[in-house]
Amino acid sequence: MLVYLRLLKESFGFAINALTNNKLRTLLSLLGVTIGILSIIAVLAAVDSLDRKITKDLSSLDKNTIYLMRFSFGPSEIPQWKREQFPNVKFDEYTYLKGSLTNTDQVAYQLFVKRESIKYESKLVSDVNVVPVSSEFIDIQGLEFEQGRFYNESESNSGTAVIVLGYEIAEGLFGSTNALGKNIRLYGQRFTVIGVLKKQGAGVFGDSNDTSVFLPVNFLRRLYGDNNDTMTPVILLKPNKGVDMDAYKAEVTYKLRSIRGVKAGEIDNFFINVLSGFTDLIDGIIGQMNVVGWIISGFSLLVGGFGIANIMFVSVKERTNLIGIQKSLGAKNRFILFQFLFEAVILSVIGGIIGLVLVWIISIILTQALDFEFVLSMGNVFLGTGLAALIGLISGILPAITASKLDPVEAIRTGM
């Protein structure tokens, strides 16, 4: 055991010597490993960070939550021309489903509308994501509040001019002052602020609650009616926990077909989009990103492997005389083999560590610049180090075998 520890120490010394005596050559050879580890770990860290963000953003939502609407979240076998003829879901259908569906926790009605500007006195905030929705939305999405509250069922049904602001919207309009009770203008109307949400951070899917405002859906229905082409309605359904989703979707389908008068044999003129299906689609995309990252980075690692092999062959040639002397003094083949293998692994790991340090620096910069938590996990650090060691092992095996099989007499004569 002590022999191998001494061997490892000597190999480390030779590796450091190679780095210091042949700086440019070693740097260029290690560049491939550094870039390869940088590429792979950067991609994996980015995907992990994205996955964590998606999980965090969707953590408040039940994966069985259904978005009932005329559009599909994913690809559909129904031709586009036919889908374009599907009618929007209606408020009457929302009230019908709310009163007739079994095994249902909450039913909400929401409108997707274009972005607007909000004004308070002389201050104006533009590009605001407006979310007109019924009061049940808070029980489906689980919003958290910095100040105030969400509007209740009475305010929602009557379309009271109240509004809940996202964190950044409230900060842009009111700064550090209390926003509750203040009157802001939206759609040319005056709204009273009754709540401010907690800071969420950047949203993965574009919009964040920080840049959104929530108001009773019936206020907008009363203002613009139900046949406005700029608004797309959706019914949100949250089933009870443990419900059989196939049976639940069948019940939703039956009831909506009945109220719409869809005849037997005709296709459904609506889509039941389950959130879990959307998350599965996202997981598939993330998996594909990982594969592409590995393929692209693999080429860099291949180049890096050739670079390490080149260093080791040069090292064998430069130390041929030393190898001959070691063998003549009784050093066994495996001792020489392990000496060069350890050296190759150490050189490769050094290149990998440089790559990991670069990823760490990049993650800090991106986190600060993008308001997005870019995480370099310990799992990825160990993976990067392990990959670098593996590349060194594979790249160094042939030079190490070559060195271990040198004839001691010929080696000493060649080195003279």
UniProtKB/TrEMBL annotation:
Record-annotated MacB-like periplasmic core domain positions: 26-253
Xref: Pfam families: FtsX, MacB_PCD
Subcellular location: Cell membrane
Chain ranges of the ABC3 transporter permease C-terminal domain: 294-408
Molecular functions (GO terms): transmembrane transporter activity
Transmembrane parts of this sequence: 27-47, 292-314, 335-362, 374-398
Membrane topology reported for the UniProt record: Multi-pass membrane protein
Entries under PANTHER family matching the protein: ABC TRANSPORTER PERMEASE YTRF (PTHR30572:SF4), MEMBRANE COMPONENT OF TRANSPORTER-RELATED (PTHR30572)
InterPro entries: ABC3_permease_C, MacB_PCD, Macrolide_Exporter_MacB
UniProt keyword list: Cell membrane, Membrane, Transmembrane, Transmembrane helix
Protein family per UniProt: Belongs to the ABC-4 integral membrane protein family.
Protein name according to UniProt: ABC transporter permease
Coiled-coil positions: none
Transmembrane helix found in the keyword field: yes
Main location: membrane
Origin superkingdom: Bacteria
A Gene Ontology cellular-component term: plasma membrane
